[in-house]
Amino acid sequence: MSKLSRDELLSKAMYINGNWLQGEATFDVSNPASGEVVGQVASASQKNVEQAIDAAHKALQSWRRCTAEQRGKKLRQWYDAIMEHQQPLAEIMTLEQGKPVAEAAGEIAYGASFVEWFAEEARRVRGDILPLLSEGQQTRVIKQPVGVVGCITPWNFPNAMITRKVAPALAAGCTVVVKPPTLTPLSALALAVLAEKVGIPPGVINIVPTDDAKMFSETLCNNEKVRKLSFTGSTKVGQNLMRLCAENVMKVSLELGGNAPFIVFDDADLDVAVEQFIACKFRNAGQTCISANRVLVQNDIHDAFVEKLSAAMKDLKIGDGMQNGVDMGPLINQDAVEKAQKLVRDALEQGATSELEGGQRKDIGALFYAPELLTGIRNDMKIANTEIFAPVVAVQRFDTEDDGIQLANDTEYGLAAYFCASSVQRIHRVSEALEAGLVGINAGAISNALHPFGGMKQSGIGREGSHYGIDEYLEIKTLIQGNL
């Protein structure tokens, strides 16, 4: 296909049944770095959502009958198109979300890797033939697509959170209705432009932006044609969606909130610990669900670690994501800034110490927030029990290995956890003791299409990515045949 420019990828209409629809209402999408309106995007009505569900249900009948090779081929073409347009897609993301364009380009490649992976996994869905129970009888186990899938995605990874859900759904033979976030819908619509260009059939992918999230959720979950919901977002919203899905006993995948610990033990290589922590914490300005939220440092090396970390944080450059050499862009909106300010203020009032002159940088722009490093944090402080979603580092001390593990697990969440250590014995002990779906060991960057991604406890249900990810979109059917 011919290379498309950024403007050609910047669609602002709904994509339903292969058609681009304007709708009766719109909402603004703004650049968080400048506050300028990037565009006005069509806001779907209930009728539009129902149209998308009907289109997906109709397309399901033919898409599920395609061979695994045919579905995989279309996904591979979509992957190639995404990577061919990596730079313009990254620029669109930076305009609406704020992260540095180099980081955004990394997300485009990361998101595309799920399309590539599941293009290959489509042909690896397999069942079983069970041992004979009696003469003349055979039992087979087959896997079939669950049906129409509703996807609700967050603003912090506007490309990858789409592909991580849509690619396995399509590989399994499902069709999808996607609600992208109102803050960052343009990346999702750009993906639909490319899906259309490579010939993914009408109705297989439907992108339905709307500023009425409640209407979308209720319309989707109350429609018996929809058989699965995949949601990434807060635990509170996920709980409400799960209640809605219960009425029709709809299959659900939920990737919810986190409160990830980053433990630094006294046998850790501190240079490695600091390097991996920076990679983990400051990606997307700390606005990730697996970002280190609580830094737990063993007493003997606390001061040395804080000194090294403080120096590394001072080197981070913040600014407009379109500028060269920028490490961190703005926070997504004013609510995010105020939340960070409130958490820091509360911690300081309760005895924490600020080691850096971080905080809001109005000289750059209203939503820019310089990295903040707090020490003297206690587990009873609000900042230790809240998903920060900002470049604020909150450091706690602990004495023994068991104390560190207990602190790490003392949360209702269990999405990700990190620790740094050298002892092989300690690595094995701590890895198995931590209550989290993903554990980084001397590693701060842990997401990959090959890895099962998902949480324990109130951090969610199900897994995305890896060969486990496609199972979320399949039903198991047992066939018992006699009189053979």
Automatic annotation (TrEMBL):
User: Is Oxidoreductase included in the keywords of this UniProt record?
Assistant: yes
GO biological processes: gamma-aminobutyric acid catabolic process
Q: Please report the stretch or stretches of sequence annotated as the Aldehyde dehydrogenase domain.
A: 20-478
- One MF term in GO for this entry? succinate-semialdehyde dehydrogenase (NAD+) activity
Q: Which UniProt keywords apply?
A: Oxidoreductase
Q: Does the keyword Coiled coil apply?
A: no
What name does the UniProt record give this protein? Succinate-semialdehyde dehydrogenase (NADP(+))
Lineage of origin: Bacteria, Pseudomonadati, Pseudomonadota, Gammaproteobacteria, Alteromonadales
Gene label:
gabD
